[in-house]
């Protein structure tokens, strides 16, 4: 079983502009062995208008990203409708629903966590979401920084992932970040 990944997303307003940021670590582990330290687990979709991140195996990630991007194209980038359609398809597909995987997708207006069980979750605060082995560490750090520090969203994501990488053995500090 592959255990790894920390994906953290932030959506909000900074200096009067709507922003969306997603970051991920680079570690891929198999049991107690680090297989790769510089994996890219985040990407942009729909002509750079949507950010996404994945926790699960790489082959599954590519399949799910491609499926979601096809839905986005058909829905002309409507994230809310695409998420709902994607969740239905993921849950109803005999093979895909057995994946132990999660995705985060966001743009400047919406932020969702998706799972193969058909879950579509918006974060309680509406602006910070995390998945993966180190997700709870990154989420805790991001909430604290959001409440008590005045830093740019990109820095908030980077520092929170750095903290998660220092605490979670399945997360490293080789961080990738994308923003809108």
UniProtKB/TrEMBL annotation:
Protease subunit of a proteasome-like degradation complex believed to be a general protein degrading machinery. Allosterically activated by HslU binding. One of its GO terms (biological process) is proteolysis involved in protein catabolic process. It is found in: Cytoplasm. The gene is hslV. This is ATP-dependent protease subunit HslV. The lineage of its organism: Bacteria, Pseudomonadati, Campylobacterota, Epsilonproteobacteria, Campylobacterales. CDD domains: protease_HslV. The active site is at 5. InterPro entries: ATP-dep_Prtase_HsIV_su (IPR022281), Ntn_hydrolases_N (IPR029055), Proteasome_sua/b (IPR001353), Proteasome_suB-type (IPR023333). Pfam families: Proteasome. The keyword Signal does not apply. It is an enzyme of class 3 (hydrolase). GO terms for molecular function: metal ion binding; threonine-type endopeptidase activity. One of its GO terms (cellular component) is proteasome core complex. It comes from the Bacteria. SUPFAM superfamilies: N-terminal nucleophile aminohydrolases (Ntn hydrolases). Belongs to the peptidase T1B family. HslV subfamily. Na(+) binds at residues 165, 168, 171. Keywords: Allosteric enzyme, Cytoplasm, Hydrolase, Metal-binding, Protease, Sodium, Threonine protease. Its EC number is 3.4.25.2. It catalyses: ATP-dependent cleavage of peptide bonds with broad specificity. A double ring-shaped homohexamer of HslV is capped on each side by a ring-shaped HslU homohexamer. The assembly of the HslU/HslV complex is dependent on binding of ATP.
